[in-house]
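Researcher: Structure prediction, please.
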Amino acid sequence: MLDLKGKHIVVAGGGLSGIAAANFCSSRGARVSLSDTRHANEITGLPQLDPSIELECGGHTEPLFLCADLIILSPGIPLHVPVINRALQAGIPVWGEIELASRFLNIPVLAITGTNGKSTVTSLCGHILRHCGEQVFIGGNIGTPLIEAVGGAYSVAVVELSSFQLETVTSFHPQVAVLLNISPDHLDRYADMSSYMEAKQRIFSQQDATDVVVLNQDDPQVLALAQGFPARRICFSSSQILAEGLSLESSSVLWRHSAAEYRFDCNALQLRGVHNLENVMAALAACSVRGHTPATMWKAACEFTALPHRMELVRTLNGVRWYNDSKGTNIGSVEKGLRSFDSPLTLIAGGKDKGGDYAILRPLLKEKQPQLILLGAAAEKMAAAWGDICDITMATSMQDAVKYAHQKTHAPGSVLLSPGCSSFDMFSSFTERGEVFTALVQALE
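Model: Predicted structure follows.
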């Protein structure tokens, strides 16, 4: 096990994972410095920081970083920032909190990544395994830092991983690696789509033939990224019947596994939409590695409800259903949302642009013909991509957007907030954006 005693460790970024990593290293006898570009009064987690930890605020200074034995990098800080580049050139190891935790964990890890659906599948896996009697740690990108699982009385860890977190793993070795889908995202950070995909691919890099990968058979990019890695495959599909794996057949999940065949009625699930059926199949495949019976796992999946801000039904008013999908922060999530509706639809979209190509949605928008209400910094770019095929209303606030949607949408229609953008132009997070939307919808008369 890694010995941190006496090492000088610099933690870059005072977010949730940074504070947790700094405290952990300090508890193991390291001399720890926490560096953040913000001022101290802007770092909300400082009261939880070990008082022995040195604090650098207002910027990352090169002398501090170049005297480190190890740098723990927040996922919000790119590897290409100058001070990190210089540290790497000097031969100083740069890890993320996930890599640090993996050096101390002694339990199996189920790791979930992909462009969309990560949080739902992570939460669902945790729910299924707890239902089956396991002591489960649930964390990673979904909230609780993985480092907090170290030393806990857990039988397994279920971890959501973003591409940012995967950039800094080197020896992280999950027993099960799940890749749900790939579509353009975070192109404001990555030079191109290939760089984004390479980060996702790192989830497989340390697996061997005793491990398992769970893959979306319908996504060619997913299959291409997993090519050449030795782990055993379990695939799922919503468009074809697989000889081995999980398939969507009419209104049933067909599960062919180890010469046995199981059928489960999708109508028993509380989750709705084809994308959520894919999420369920992925979670069942991942949890099956733990040896639990399909019937027991399916029962648990049927009890699971949608996470907040993810295709969440807010209310039905005058025959119109209002859905909060504020977590839909990229083009792929908007596509999945649009495909979930057959009735007349009003889509509220927009926010801070992440560098994606909105023209990708043109064929689906032509088919669905939703009314569009656009707001935020990306509204003009979206309008330029879609203005000739859909009716568009521009809004200056979420309050205006909800008001216009209320005026324009009639039964049996639906209103969907699925922004396709980050929230940081108008809100502090997708959570705040969803909460504001929900409150406004609940206030409608």
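Model: The first strand starts at residue 8 and ends at 12.
Researcher: Thanks, that helps.
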